[in-house]
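ok here's the first one, seq then struct tokens
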Amino acid sequence: MKSNLPVKMMALFNVLSNNSYYVNIIFFNFVFLFGLVALFKVLFSIYPNKKWVITCSLFLLPSTLFWCSGIHKDGLILSAIGVCIYCFYKLLKETFALKYLVFILLSFLLIFSLRNYILFALLPFIFCWIIAEKHPTHKKKIFAGIYVSGLACFFIIPLIFPSINPPLYLALKQQEFLQLTAGSQITTDPLQPTIQGFISFLPRALDMAFLRPHPTEFANLSYIPAIIETILLAVLILVSVISLSKTFKVPPIVIGLFAFSVSVLLICGYTIPFTGAIVRYRSVVLPLLITPLLCITNFSFSKKKD
């Protein structure tokens, strides 16, 4: 299912395009744009004065443009995430409608069938978001409490149910990647499926998820957009942290998008030892991380009420 879905979509589009690859690209991008447009509507309703910031950061990121606009499953995943977030936003802000629930279930099914770990990272975000919307004054505590509890369960569950072992699953995933070979492979030690193993591997996971490719890894011209993108991401995160106390109130969905994106990136950082692959996998959640950060960051550093 993971690899066959784009092929099946291609077979369907071939009937309409007379086997034209370029026409099929248009059909695929039409589907991919649904999720990005849905995300735009959600974020624009929250930050109406940030129209062009939202537009550029959602639609014009180099890695997202490249990986999520071709005949790959990355665009389908991003679109499904966008539709899911939009439907939950509508359910939380408006009256219940069955169509939103149907689209949410279809999005869950699509994400799970293509990259199941993204769904596992999405569920805590949605759970926290729903509770935080009902108790907005405690939103930070809600997110912190649920995510810390989830992290504890991640390591405790194997002690109670040995057949369910999430740390071992990630370690085996890394082993599968290590058995592959590519020019962008990074030499790394095997991940140990223990608390100590994950803690000791954390600096490498953060480096892989947020800082690769390094400027010193320049191999060809295709590395330039990824390197620039990585540098700007690091600067943006730093500026956001510095100006955080001076920003307006941050809505629960923005906290959730940040937590979800970081969760997915850390999973990738723990399991993927290839620079090229990390750029591709990161492209799916990068708009969900950069766009909210740009919306809440006070680049003028003028004082604002929290």
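and now the second one, same deal
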Amino acid sequence: MQFNDTKKKINGRLTVTVANEIDAAKAKVLWDKFLELPKDLDLATLQTEPDESLAFGELPSVAQKAATYKAISKDFINWVYSNEVFELLYSPLLDAYSKFGEAAADFRVRVDQTARELRDQAVEDLRARMTKQAKAIQEKMARAQQKLETQKAQASSAKLSTVMQIGSGLLGALFGRKGSAFSSTTVNKVGSAWRESKEASAAEDEVERYDQELRELDKQLTDEIQKIRDQYDPTALVFETVQLNPLKKNITRLPSAFSGWQSSMGD
């Protein structure tokens, strides 16, 4: 039997060997009456010479006709199609099937190794993606910090200039200079100092916002790494048993012969 499924990446051949009783009168094989033989039995490993203690009777005439083999071929294919299935192990996580002839333990080891490799690659890809995002935030934060330092310096300078202007106005008023102690220039400088202080506060909030974004990104990275580790945890891997039914067109009967038709113990 040939199994070939490109979608599932399954490709292999399975041999079914059966030894059945024959109804000579009806010239047919009794497919439901057979000796239990290993499915993978290699006929080439069997002895070609009979035991000397056994005596064989003559084959019935039906067993000596080529037409008989042709007739039973279709019956054999129908019987195999209806009775033979092949079981494979399937890993839903990796969407992978065990190979023909691969022991269950070997498949589990292979899936375990593949899962570890996928886990490591997924974590590496996640770190690379998150690092790129973090660098973008850090660059914005650096510009915000530079802006904050500038705003602080300007606010401090504006406050100092305003204080000096107010002091000068007060001294002028005390010593008899005409006019108000607070000129329009002084008022303008007070307004400028207030604006610079407000802008410095806004720049500080911006720095804090970017700092919070970095903290949240770090937490997101930790959480997603744990999810990846849980997803590919070898102890949590699930395996399913899948049954494959052959297509009739892929069942081929190999040449066979009637042997050991009848035997009796010699005296």
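notes on #2: The first helix runs from residue 66 to 83. Helices lie at 66-83, 104-174, 184-231.
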